Amino acid sequence: MSQAVQQSFVPGSLRSSRAVIQLAALAVFASFGVTTHGDCPADLDGSGGVGGSDIGLLLAQWGKGNGSADLNGDGKVDGKDFGILMANWGGC
Ligand SMILES: [Ca+2]
Q1: 22 domain-assigned
Q2: Contacts (Cβ under 8 Å, ≥6 apart) of 80
Q3: From the CA of 62, how far away is ligand 1's center (Å)?
Q4: Domain contains 74
Q5: Residues 6+ apart with CB under 8 A from 91
Q6: 38/49 Cα distance (integer angstroms)
Q7: Are 65 and 24 contacting, i.e. CB atoms less than 8 angstroms apart?
Q8: 27 inside domain
Q9: Mean pLDDT (whole number) for 44-59
Q10: What is the pLDDT of residues 13-48, one digit of tens each?
Q11: Does 8 have pLDDT greater than 80?
Q12: What separation in Å is there between the alpha carbon of 35 and the centre of ligand 1?
């Protein structure tokens, strides 16, 4: 294997290893019922930031109770939760 091929192959291998580790960690968290929102509960899709897709998830739960979008824990998803999401807009 040439050096150029090795250099282009190694970073990809590292990324693959990282992805496998991340998937394993998610599986462990899921098996214990732990959410992956971490310090950013408004990151409803777990993307590492709060954005449009999180608004979509919140709106899908609008008027319902005890979902992941019930950010203030009052038993329903409403404007208060939307306000919390907007206050956390951006990166976590
Ligand atoms: Ca709420």
Answers
A1: yes
A2: 71, 72, 74
A3: 9
A4: yes
A5: 48, 49, 50
A6: 11
A7: no
A8: yes
A9: 96
A10: 555 555 544 544 444 444 443 444 568 999 999 999
A11: no
A12: 17
| 53/27 same-domain check | no
Centre of ligand 1 to C-alpha 78, Å, is 6
Q: Within this chain, do residues 55 and 29 fall inside the same structural domain, yes or no?
A: no
Number of domains in the chain: 2
Distance from chain centroid for Cα 21: 16
Residue 4 lies in a domain: yes
50 or 4, which is more confident?
Answer: 50
Give the Cα separation of 77 and 64 in Å (integer): 6
Structure tokens, 60? 């899908």
Q: Which domain holds residue 27?
A: 1-34
